[in-house]
Structures are given as C-alpha cells and as structure tokens.
Fold each of these.
Amino acid sequence: MKKFELLTIETLSKIRPVLESKLPISGMMLNIINAAVKSSKNSEEGLRTIYGYDGAVNLDTLFIVTLFKRTNDKQFTVMYTHDDDAVTTEMLTAFSELHDWSKPYVFGAIPEAFSVHLEKIAIEKGGSISRNLCADMYLPMEDALKLDLNKMDFKDEFEVDKLTEENALKVDSHWKYGKGGEFMAEVIKSSVSAGVFKRKTDPNTGETSSSRANEDLVSWIVFIELGTLNALYTSEDHRRRGLAQWTLEAGSKWAAEAGFIPMCEIEEYNVQSRSLVEKVGYKLLHNVNWMYYVPSGEN
C-alpha cells in the first residue's frame, strides 16, 4: 500500500518548478519547500518535515504534507494537492497514518473540500475538530519588490530593520501561538523579519540613533516556517500612525527579495487586518479553514 514518504532535497528541487506553475494557489507550500531547499535540510529530526504521497513520484497527482514539531503542545500540519476533489480513499488512509491522533494538531490553511475529509477522520479517531475561517491573501512578488520603504514622515523618529534574536521573547509574548521564545528566536535567526524601532536623540549632539533593543521595538512581523508572514503587532501607544503598514511592507518586500511569495492568513472577523493588507496590495486567493484537532479525553 502506498504511503507518505520523506522527500529528499533532490526531489523537493524537482517539485519546485511544478509548484511555480501552479502559483499563486501553491504559494504557501512553495515557500515551505524553498526554505527547506535553502537550508538543505529535510529530516524527521528537524522542526519541519516534508512528506510526499508515494514519494511524489507522480507530479501530476502531487500530494504533499509538511509536519511541524513544536516545543509547545501544538503540532502543525500544512498540506497541498493539485486537486482536493481528486484525493482518493487510499490517499486519505495514508494521510491518517502519517499523524499521531493521540496528540492535538493545528491544520493550517485547509481548503473546504479537504476540511470535510479531516472532520471525518477526527470522528473516526474519537476526537473533535473545529474550524476557523480565514482569508488566504497573497502579494505578487513583482508588487512586493516595488514597495518603497523610505517613509520620510518617520525618518527622524523611527527606522525599520530586521529583528534580532534579542527581540524574540518580546515578539513571542504577543503571538497567539507563542510559548517561551525559543522557537521565535530560531525563526528570527533563520528567516525573514521586520521591526520598527524608535530612534533616540542625543541631547549633546542632536543626532538620532536606535539600539535595536526591546525597549525601542514598537512594531514587528516575522515570516514563519508555515510559509506565511505572521505575528504582526504594534504597541498600543504607537498605533494609528501607519507603523503596522510600514512593518508589513518591509516584511513583504524582504520576503520577496529572499525568494518567498508574501502570503498571510486573515481571520474572517478581523476586518481591520484585512483592510491593512489590502492597502499594501494583497489580494484574496481563496478562503481556507484553520482546523484545531483535540484528541479524545482532552479539553
């Protein structure tokens, strides 16, 4: 019986042009694979492990699943198929066997057709699963690369730059999936990030500078391993000044420069965030479900 197999870097490299031909719908998985190829790592010992149904030997019926191990209690899964309606019973059985259903999972950006399959599997395993409808948004790379980060209104008061590992705990403490900062430190170290820092004026010289210290960090965003820009946050006393937009623009442009498709997930009720990303130029790809599986016996 066919099953999901760990994909080699060589196989992932062969898959990339196939996913590129399916853009933008394949953008999230393409970002994940690009990150793996850049790092030359895809193993079951790592934080990110990419599997392909039947070893992804048939690129016309591609079914890829990425499992993310976390230091907290949530495991994440992202999957991609060319056609969710073409998923067979054999494929679903292999997908089910790839997971340990005694653990809680977050299934990210799941299309409606596959959401139904997940709900059936959850019932079979005796657990429960809930949905959170989100808008899957993307910014064309050519548009991201044209973003102008020179904000003259802010030049004396703020500056935008990449985050440092020192900022990880502060960023993590305001992230809904955060827990301890260790994971966020690794994200900042190895991926794309952007932060807006307050500049300080030297009373003697009148010159301004920023230390990149947490006390100067007022807005930030990171490109997480799930293939999306995430954790956008602006300190309450610095909101409504355009800093969140500047942060998003910087993160989007730097992600594109690094070879990633700028993508983000906006929860259905979050009208303010949807308005912000559309202002930057993001477009709706489709609506997807973030699904939360809880094993039997757990709350």
Note: The two ends are 35 Å apart (CA to CA).
Amino acid sequence: MLLAILFKAKKSWLFNASVPTTSTKLGSSRISPTPTLQLSQPYMPHPFPRLALLGLATLLPAFAATAQVTRQADGITLRLPQTYDQAPRTVRLQVVGNKIIHVQASPLDTLSTVKSLMVVPQKAPPKWQYKEKKGVGYLSTDALTAAITLATGAVSFEDAAGHPVLQERAGGGKTFVPTVADGQPFYQIKQVFQSPTDEGLYGLGQHQNGTMNYRGQQVELAQNNTDVAVPFLVSSKQYGILWDNYSITKVGDTRDYEPLSTLKLYAKTGEPGWLTATYVSKKNPNEVIAARPESVINYEYIEDQKNFPVGLKL
C-alpha cells in the first residue's frame, strides 16, 4: 500500500495508492534516469497464479475507452481500460480531509481492505464534488483538486488557486509487474512522480549517508542498526508523501549501483583502463607506501583488507 500526504501552509493533503495484498517480499527494479521522484517498492504477493489470472481475464467484459466511474459517500472508484499488462485496473480516490485525498490502485478488480498501521481512523469527510471534462475526472474540496486521467488513471494535484503541486509521470506512474519469488506469485510495484530540477526532497528517517537533500540520491527504507526508515518524504514545494507500506523500498533514483569498472577509467599518467591507487602513511601523508593500477575499489568490510597492498594495514 502506498500512502502520500500533501501539505501546504502547515496543513495536510494526502495521496495514496495500494495493491490488494497484506504482505511483501524484497525485490528491486531498474528505471530510467528521468527527472522524476521515483518510489519503487519491491514484491507484492500476486493472489492468483499467472495462468489463472489470464484465464480470469478472458471472462471479463471488454473495457470501454475510458474508465467506468462509481461514486461513494467519500469519493469515487474507477474501473480503467486495459491499456497494457502492467497498468492499474482499479483506482479509488477517497476524500479524507479538505487537504487529504487517499488514492488506492490495484492491478485487479478489487482493492485492499487491510487497515493501515500508520493512519489513524478518520472522521466523516468534508464536502466535495466531482466532474468530468475532456477525458479527465476532477475531485475537488475547498482546498485542493485531484485530477485523474480516465484513460490511464494518472493522478495530479492542484491547490485551490489551480497551481500544480504534484503529478505522476505522463501516461501514469503506477506499474504492477507480475513476478515469482520463492516459488510464489508476486507483484513488483513502482510509483513515479514528476519532480522539477529545483525541488529539494527531505525526510525518510535516520540514515548514515551524510545526505539531507535526497534529490538524485537513492534511499533504502529498511530497519538496520543505526539506520531507521520513516517512509515520509517532505518536498521544498510544500507537499509531503507518506508511503504507507511495510516492505523494504527504494526511494529516489532506484537504479542498481554499477561497479566502478563500468566507467571509462584513466590512470594518473593517462593510460586508459584503470585508476592509479596511491596508499600513503597515515602519520606522514607525503610518504607513499604503494601505488598501483586498480579498476575495482571495494573495502567495505573488515575482511576486504586482504585486498590492500602487501604489508599495508589500517
């Protein structure tokens, strides 16, 4: 489940997307280095084997060109066209407060009914209205408008003055990729938002990388020794995103790190193919102990000291 809270002027708006499952497993993903805020969340359980899901799809009626919209007391539910295999099939916009919209998304015909462990029960929703214009649905309160494209389910947000605040990637930022882990069917899900080049991204908990602004960085939300994951991101554009999900999650640039050897390396003297690694005395930096060509620099763990030049110790 993904939950995002948007806020402005010390008040909150909320965005949320989810899949209809209750447990998750670790995975990873690789996406292009576009200027977007990427929330890439690992494996979500797939409630049907892939073959069974395909068989079920043959029994469903053909989708219309745009979503089928159903209204509830606190929002709307959309049944989307089947545009591509990884697209969401069901999306729900739920009004929680004047500045809080809860969004759920699923690749199936049902949405999760599991209660959140992060969000407390809410009171009755405020007044809201819904209208459609030129293939876009607009759900509005007195403080914000959530616009959803009826063909793809892509969601964007505007304040009361009509100024854009947050939007998903063009064509839709929610994807659900069927996969298998430990012999079980799962979904690997990804959420992508557009992010302007001057935006700062903060929060996400207590991490040991010396970074405050996470724009262009990768953050893993996982509980480790001295590393605390808090799945709440704050933007310099005056909104926030709460990822209401209990899986290990990559945030930001979610591409896997590549080894140094994938770059074009040059030695100190200009020869291509490696770097010149120079080891000096800790007490006297002018004293060179060893200098050698290296294309792999990996001293992350104590046992990696065996890779130091002979006779060199920390």
Note: Helices lie at 50-57.
